[in-house]
């Protein structure tokens, strides 16, 4: 069994469907996949679309309603106040995998929802981790992510050390359950904590020296059409150009549209347009 965890809200239902479908399409044994979907406020229609993955491919789907469990808000309150406001709080869910997943699960592959899996995950999932707690790919623009404007030094991180993207992580759950992220950050000054990039910084800081570096093919980030020649196993649309944007110029865009299916692709675009108009009307 391959255990896969994802976290998303209703605004990301269709990309989640596409990521899950790409996994099922590129595996030899989709019936051996088990998805643990940590979600917020899914509409019945969107939940049904995602659940169809189980019916169509035989995969097992475990929906985990974050709000019903009342875990996210209370736990986040214990974390430092961060200046950034762009990301949805659902990104913190991956920090609480130990509380949300069955304690019998010894290993899990955490995946973001803006991925395109292009080859079987077996070599990644069943790899030897050599005692490391997490396996992940380096963040390509890690110097800017770590230091920000003018590459000003931060005490929590050194640009001489590796820094990893948290969008694809193979996790040893035995070690992960033992991590208290709030306690691990307790010694840092408030001004330093205020600069943190949400959970990705927290994972890199708390598991420093315990993250195994993966080959970039397992998380090719911010992919452009020229990167298609690299034949990556996992494409990560980590920057703002997403394959469901009309104007975007990203790798495998045409294939991704059919991965999401024409029906859901156009439905998702309409829903995004409606949300955007409603936001504009509220601002006006």
TrEMBL record:
Q: Which InterPro entries is this protein grouped with?
A: Glyco_trans_8, Glycosyltrans_8_dom-fam, Nucleotide-diphossugar_trans
**Keyword Membrane assigned:** no
* Molecular function as annotated in GO: glycosyltransferase activity; metal ion binding
Q: Which CDD domains match?
A: GT8_A4GalT_like (cd04194)
Per UniProt, which keywords does this protein have? Glycosyltransferase, Metal-binding, Transferase
Report the coiled-coil segments. Answer: none
Q: What is the native source organism of this protein? A: Devosia psychrophila
Q: Does the keyword RNA-binding apply?
A: no
Identification of the protein by name = Lipopolysaccharide biosynthesis protein, LPS:glycosyltransferase
């Amino acid at each position: 069994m391959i255990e896969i965890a994802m976290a998303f809200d209703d605004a990301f239902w269709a990309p989640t469907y596409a990521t899950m479908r790409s996994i099922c399409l590129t595996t030899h044994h989709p019936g051996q996949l088990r998805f643990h979907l940590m979600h917020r406020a899914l509409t019945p229609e969107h939940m049904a679309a995602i659940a169809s993955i189980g019916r169509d491919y035989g995969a097992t789907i475990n929906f985990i309603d974050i709000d019903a469990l009342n875990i996210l808000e209370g736990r986040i309150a214990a974390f430092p106040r961060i200046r950034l406001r762009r990301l949805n709080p659902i990104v913190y869910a991956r920090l609480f995998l130990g509380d949300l997943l069955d304690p019998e699960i010894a290993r899990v592959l955490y995946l973001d929802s803006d991925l395109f899996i292009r080859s079987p995950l077996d070599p990644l999932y069943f790899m030897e981790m050599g005692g490391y707690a997490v396996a992940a790919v380096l963040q390509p623009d890690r110097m800017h992510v770590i230091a920000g404007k003018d590459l000003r030094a931060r005490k929590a991180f050194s640009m001489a050390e590796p820094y990893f993207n948290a969008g694809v992580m193979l996790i040893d759950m035995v070690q992960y359950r033992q991590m208290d992220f709030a306690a691990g950050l307790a010694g840092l000054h408030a001004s330093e904590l205020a600069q943190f990039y949400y959970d990705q910084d927290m994972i890199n800081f708390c598991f420093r020296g315990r993250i195994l570096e993966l080959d970039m093919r397992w998380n090719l980030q911010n992919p452009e059409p020229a990167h298609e020649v690299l034949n990556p196993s996992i494409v990560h649309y980590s920057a703002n150009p997403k394959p469901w944007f009309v104007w975007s110029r990203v790798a495998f865009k045409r294939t991704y549209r059919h991965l999401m299916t024409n029906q859901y692709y156009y439905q998702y675009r309409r829903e995004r347009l409606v949300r955007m108009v409603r936001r504009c009307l509220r601002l006006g």
